[in-house]
Amino acid sequence: MANAAKRWWKYLGAKANTTLDDRADPRVQLEQAMAEAQDQHRRLKEQAANVIANQRQAELRLNRSMEEYERLTANARQALLMADQAARAGDADRSVEYTATAEAFANRLVAVEQEVEDTKSLVLQSAQAAEQAKAAVAQNATLLQKKLAERQKLLGQLDQAKMQEQVNRSVASLNDTVGEDVPTLAEVREKIDLRYARAKGMAELQEHAVPDRMLEVEQAALNAEAVARLDALREQLGLPMAQPPVRSSAPHR
C-alpha cells in the first residue's frame, strides 16, 4: 500500500512538472536559466576570491615570520657578542646574563624557524589553490559567454517560431469557417473561379458567333433568291414582271 501511494505521488509530481513545462513561457525559462548560470558564476568568483585572499594572508604571515626570524637571529648574535665582550672585560655575571639572553633568542628562533617552514608549505598550497581557482573562474566565464551567445541565438529562434506560429494561425483561420454567415476562403475562391469560367465561356461564344453583317448578307442573298424564284414563276405563268420600287428623291426631313 505504501509503495503504491509513493508511486502515485511521484506520478502526480511528474504530471505537474510536465504541465508546468508545457505552459511555461520559454523566454522566461531561458532568463531563469541564465540568471542561475550568472549566480553560479558569481558564487564561484566569491569562492575564488576567498582562496586568493587565503593565499595573500599566508604570504603576509610568511613575510612577518621571515622578518621575525631575521630580527631574532640578529638579536641572538648581538647577545653572544655582548656576552663575549663582558667575559673579556672580566664581568662574568653580565657575560652569563647575555649568554642566557642569547639562548632565549635562540629558543624563540627555533620556534619561528619551524613557523616559517610551515607557512612556506601553506603559501605553496594556497598558491596552487589560487591558480586553480583563477583557472576555474576563467573557464566558467568562457562557458558563461557561450551561454549568453546561445541565449541570444535561442531568443532569435523563439521569435522566429512565434512569428511562424502566427503565420500558421493566420493561414489556418483563412481556411476555416469564420462564422455561420461568413464563407470560407475556399468557398469564395470557388465562386470566383466559377464566375471567371462563365465569363470565359461567354467570351468564347461571342468569338465563335456569326457577326451581324454576315447575317445581313445571308438574309439579302435569301431575299434575292426569293425574288428570282418569283420572277421565274411569273414568266411561266405569262404574268408581267414586278416593277422595282421607285425611290423617292425628296429630301429627308
Total domain modules: 2
| Share of helix, binned | over 70%
Which residues form runs of ≥5 with pLDDT under 50?
A: none
Rg to the nearest angstrom?
58 Å
Provide mean pLDDT, rounded.
79
Secondary structure: number of strands = 0
**What composes the largest sheet?**
none
Could you explain how this protein is built, in words?
With 253 residues, the chain is mainly α. The chain has two domains: 7-165, Orthogonal Bundle (Helix Hairpins), CATH 1.10.287; 185-237. Helix content is 87%, strand content 0%. It has helices at 2-23, 26-88, 92-175, 185-208, 212-237. Helix 2 runs antiparallel to helix 3 (92-175). It is rod-shaped and about 200 Å long. The N and C termini lie far apart (120 Å). The mean pLDDT is 79.
Give the tags.
mainly alpha; 2 domains; Helix Hairpins; 5 helices; 87% helix; 253 residues; rod-shaped
Offer a quick outline of the entry.
The chain is mostly helical.
How are the secondary structure elements laid out?
Elements: H1 2-23, H2 26-88, H3 92-175, H4 185-208, H5 212-237
